[in-house]
Amino acid sequence: MVQKVTCGIKISVETNFEGTFYKNYKIHFAFGYRVTIENQSKDSVQLTSRFWNIKDALKDTEIVQGEGVIGKKPVLMPGETHTYSSGCLLSAPFGSMSGYYNMVNFTTSKKFKVAIPAFKLSAPFALN
């Protein structure tokens, strides 16, 4: 698990390898990840959008950005957490992800970014 705190918002990420499959005559490596967002600040905040930088060992890079996370824009009161699971496909058995969440502080009305710590994606069979 990797963790990082930015502006009182703690991001924790756990990953797992889901398996391989073929699509359009090409092998894909499926990874899942679970993110927990914890509001350790004294203000209420809302996640409004996300930005992901996904890289694999073959130097393929995919940028993913959009509103919310899995169709939600969670509001977190002080001390609350929001956990969600998602996944990605890579063309190689190794890769990494990093990014940030755009958030708004309801007390100050200011927008801010919360860093998502870089984390590695690796298929266990490829580690030997």
Automatic annotation (TrEMBL):
InterPro entries: ApaG-like, ApaG_domain, ApaG_sf. SUPFAM superfamilies: ApaG-like. Residues 3-128 form the ApaG domain. It comes from the Bacteria. This is Co2+/Mg2+ efflux protein ApaG. It comes from Gillisia hiemivivida.
